[in-house]
Amino acid sequence: MNIPTGTKSLPKLTSALLAAALLVSGLPMTAYAGDTWPFKGDSAPGANQPNVHGYTSSHIANWSPQTDPDAELLRSRVPLQERIAPFAATQANPALSPQTRMMNVAGDYGNAFIENAPYTNKFAQYHFNFWQYIDYYSYWHGTATAYTPPEYYDELAQKDWQQKWFEFGMLNIPNPTYTDAAHKNGVMSLAGIFFSNNDRGQQTYQQMIVRDEQGNFPVAEKLIEMAQYFGFDGYFINQEEMSPNVAVADIPDYIAFMKALQKGGLYVQWYDSLNTQTGANTFARTLNDSNISMLVDKSTKEPVSNSFFFDYGAGNTQITGANNYLANLNSSLGTSYSLYDVGYAGLEAGRDRFKPVNGSALAAKLDAASLPRLSLATLGADFVHAGLDEDMGLSYPVSHRSENDYQWMTHLREQLWWSGPNVNPKNTAKPAANTVSDVYADNRYWPGISSVIAERSVIKDNNFYTNFNTGHGLSYYVNGAVSSNEEWSNMSLQDIPVTWQWWQETTGNRLTVDFDYGPGYNLSGTERYKYKQLGGFNGGSSLVVNGNLNAENFLRLYKTELSLKAGSKLSISYNKPSAANSSSMSVGIILADDPNTVVKVPVPDSGRKTSGWVTKELDLSAYAGRTAAAFGLVFNPGQGVVNNYQMNIGQIRITDGTAVKPAAPAGLTIAKAFRDTNEMVVEWKLDPDYNKVKQYNVYVNDVYMGGKYDEVFYLKRLPAKSGRLKVVAVGADGREGDAATLNFNLNAAVSNLKVNSQADGKFDVSWSNTGSTAGGVTVRVQSVNWITTAEPVQQQMVVPAGSTSAEFTGMPVNGDDYIVTVTAGPADPVSVSGHFIDTIAEPYAEAWSWNQDILNLPMPNTRDWRYLYVYEDGVAKSFATTYSSGNKPMIVRGRTTKASLSFRSTANVVYVVMEDYAGNRSEPVYLKGSH
């Protein structure tokens, strides 16, 4: 059974082609960090919550958004933003060259295996906050394929990584909200393709590089289509199969496959793990004749990949060799390759963390001036969150990393990794004594990424705003007041991060700088932060500065290229809970034509204690015609010392008045309302001009529900069953435009909506009438993500007013998805989703073959299978499993080794039986002999 693309020819074609692929084995690219476990309680997934899932090669070959669960809710629509020109004068370290680039291969949010939601009501997740130091972000962790039953993610699977008995896709697409955040910051978002011995079960590269009858690569074509639809930029390809190795005869097709991705306009980074002369899984850690063909086809000069991720042992010898090889290559081909463009030396962030070995590994990639000799890459830098419990010496069932009270630790650990040992990119000198043991880190050995990578920025043109949102919160604030008390995570809402965390220029005390998430954020476990917790202004957090102010302190915030005009103004919203005093706050601006001078624009009356949030507007017209290359805030104590000084900054907006107030979004509608689970999906028409509209905010009864730059949004928990839905666009200056509104009343709709799908094809729908019974009741049944029936199911009937049930016949019994919508008279439609009863297991239908007494069994191409039994003369054959977990009397989806699908058999009678997730077994298919 195939997963169709909506056409009738491609599924049959790809099934036959994929059937030709044999299986090999390998070892994974490894990072070490804490496992990810299902959320519980209020943060548990909603019944209809969208989640990212993985894909096998057959899933990709047959992909279409119409048959891919949640596809429309997993898109990034934010275009990749252009970064400003480098300007060394405003860098923390002017000696760093912008040609040194950075690749970050890490996790997104952290709950990646089954419940990788784009946004949800869970604060304690990983939220990457240092986009300014990277150029590419790739997702490598792997994700369970669609329809993997969540109950497989059981206690055993949580205790032991090697006991996850389900299938990970070889393709891991980016979480769309992470792509949103990446694109806001000019960072490319790359999907991960990963083949290894253990982690991908029966999947192998050979299934991916199959050609069709025209010589094209169906999987490559679909990978291009998927990237365009979901909105990401390319692929990080990690090929680590071994024993048997990649077949040398397959390498020309592998190269041609990579070329196809290049011609599709995608960025491709190749993990340098393949010797193209032998097919072995080896790591050159340099460029040579045994791997260069995965970068460029020397015979045609065509690019094969854009760059290499060199394995972690790359040091001075290997880097010198790579430079020499490139020089000779450029001379012979007439090309102009630079090692900074094509060579990324890897660091094992997730394994080595803050240990001396990691500091030494970085030093080995630097020249005599401590500058990188090529670009850099890390694997697993999300250990700052995911590895917290391990670093604390704790294991299952402890999961402090998923608890709100420990997020101050993960925030500080991330700052140590990126900003350096002093949480100050201007001072990355390593101290003699460890001062961060309270967050289970060590700052004596790791100088921070900021010591080797120059900061970047996208802040340009005439308008900019920030609410200092980090992508999550314990509440959501609108204009300084709590709009929602729900905790939340949504990287689409993350503002452009503060460029320097934290660069302060002072002759006195360094102030404490932090993100303030409000009084619900428990900081009682640390003495590092002693400020009064106020929360955010617009969003989940504000910037807080506190401490003993005994000298002027310039806190640099953002690297920019903002053109100042006669109409330019800066608006700042702040809250000063500390006592009135002689202190003052100014905006400090660095002008491009005089980068050594801080121009101070005072904020009037900023020494006074406020009784809440105050907004002041500053006139910047005196600097018209000049360019702001950076800006920050200057805190001055005035006379004497100001003890216990605190200032919260909620919003900064710089605008010249040209930002257009967005119109009310057109086409607002409720796409689906799930009354019984309090969920809803809303849609509107997207304004395609990102220069005018930066995001859409969704409210119910003026309670903030979330937001995204998109045209569809999922609401996990409605605050009320009736009221007013509001969607409003946010303009380039951070101000909301006019609102589109829509009234709804689910109290008048039917409730207790239930479905009984039966084995005889009967499909009973029942409900309770909770509102008016006037008018007939329309009941509609539609199949969703249709893949197995000849046509999508779409049936509708109208039953008399006051009815409480309807019966359909001839419905599928194959486990496909459905959505049932019931509309009682003039009331709002309400829906329930589920699966048709599953009584069928499809027989094995792949193109098996014999080569004398060697049986080749291509991996099943059906969506719904769990086991494949092979009977030899009536006895079930045993097969080895990955992670050396013992033999099993069946092939287990995702866990049996690749080699098990090609084996010797001298039996007289051989037949196979499929079993699906529901426990159904298929009719036998005889491969040798007969019944």
TrEMBL record:
Gene3D superfamilies named in the record: Galactose-binding domain-like, Glycosidases, Immunoglobulins
Keywords of this entry: Signal
Gene Ontology terms for molecular function: mannosyl-glycoprotein endo-beta-N-acetylglucosaminidase activity
Pfam families the record matches: Glyco_hydro_85
Signal peptide annotation: 1-33
Cytosolic endo-beta-N-acetylglucosaminidase TIM barrel domain span: 120-475
Gene Ontology annotations for the cellular component aspect, listed alphabetically: cytosol
Stated name of the protein: Endo-beta-n-acetylglucosaminidase d
